[in-house]
C-alpha cells in the first residue's frame, strides 16, 4: 500500500485529491496538512511514501518544507512531489534542486496524478508530461554557474553517456533502445551513477547533468 500525505492550504483541493487517491486499491491518504509546518511535523511522525506538497502555503512554504524533509537523513525514503498552479512556476526548478522528486500542475488529469504517485515510489523522476523537457531547460538556463568539471570524474564513459540521456528526459526504456542494451542494464547504469554522485533520486541526477555542463539547455529542441 502506497501511503500519501497531502499538504495544501486549500481544503477543497485536499478533498479532491483524497477522494481520487483513496479510491485506488494500492493507495491510501495517511494524513493531510494545511501549511508547511504541519506538513513537516506529520511527515516526521508518519513517514509516508509520497508527499504531494503545494508550493505556496502559509507558515512555511512548500519549498522550505521540502528542504527540511530532504535534508533529514531519517526521511530519505520519503518522496516529495511539488504541486503548482502554473506550469512554469518560478520555484519549480529550485524545488527539484532541493530534493523534490518532481512536480505536477494542479489541473493534471486524474490518471496522470495516479501514475505520478506510483512512478515516484518506483524511483522515477516525475515532471509534468508535456512540460518536462522545456521546463528543465528553461530553469537550468537560469540556475547557478555550472559545477566544476571534475564533479563527474568518478564516472565511466558509459555512465556519463547514460547520465546525459537521463538529463534530456529519456526513460530507462528509451535509454536502452538508444544504447542497444536491455532496460535492466540501463536501469543499473542509472542506479550506479546516482550512487556515485550521491543524488537522492533521478530528478536530482537531471539537475546535476545540467549544472555540470554535461547537458546544456537548447539540446531538447
From TrEMBL:
What SMART domains does its record include?
Answer: HTH_LUXR, REC
Gene3D superfamilies per UniProt: 3.40.50.2300
- Response regulatory domain mapped to chain residues: 3-121
Pfam families named among the record's database cross-references: GerE, Response_reg
Tell me which residues bear 4-aspartylphosphate: 54
Q: Which PROSITE patterns match?
A: HTH_LUXR_2, RESPONSE_REGULATORY
UniProt domain HTH luxR-type: residue ranges = 148-213
- Write down the PANTHER family for this protein, in alphabetical order: TRANSCRIPTIONAL REGULATORY PROTEIN NARL-RELATED (PTHR43214:SF24), TWO-COMPONENT RESPONSE REGULATOR (PTHR43214)
The protein's name in its UniProt record: Response regulator transcription factor
Organism annotation: Streptomyces violaceus
Amino acid at each position: 500500500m502506497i501511503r500519501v500525505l497531502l499538504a495544501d492550504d486549500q481544503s477543497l483541493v485536499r478533498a479532491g485529491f483524497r477522494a481520487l487517491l483513496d479510491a485506488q486499491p494500492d493507495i491510501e491518504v495517511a494524513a493531510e496538512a494545511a501549511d508547511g509546518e504541519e506538513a513537516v511535523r506529520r511527515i516526521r511522525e508518519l513517514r509516508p511514501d509520497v508527499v504531494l506538497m503545494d508550493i505556496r502555503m502559509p507558515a512555511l512554504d512548500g519549498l522550505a518544507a521540502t528542504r527540511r524533509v530532504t535534508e533529514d537523513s531519517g526521511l530519505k525514503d520519503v518522496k516529495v512531489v511539488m504541486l503548482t498552479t502554473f506550469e512554469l512556476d518560478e520555484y519549480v526548478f529550485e524545488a527539484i534542486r532541493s530534493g523534490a522528486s518532481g512536480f505536477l500542475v494542479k489541473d493534471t488529469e486524474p490518471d496522470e496524478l495516479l501514475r505520478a504517485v506510483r512512478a515516484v515510489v518506483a524511483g522515477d523522476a516525475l515532471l509534468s508530461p508535456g512540460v518536462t523537457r522545456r521546463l528543465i531547460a528553461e530553469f537550468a538556463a537560469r540556475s547557478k554557474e555550472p559545477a566544476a568539471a571534475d564533479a563527474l570524474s568518478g564516472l565511466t564513459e558509459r555512465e556519463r553517456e547514460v547520465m546525459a540521456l537521463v538529463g534530456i528526459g529519456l526513460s530507462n526504456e528509451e535509454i536502452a533502445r538508444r544504447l542497444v542494451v536491455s532496460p535492466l542494464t540501463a536501469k543499473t547504469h542509472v542506479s550506479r551513477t546516482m550512487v556515485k554522485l550521491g543524488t537522492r533520486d533521478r530528478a536530482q541526477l537531471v539537475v546535476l547533468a545540467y549544472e555540470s555542463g554535461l547537458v546544456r539547455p537548447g539540446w531538447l529542441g
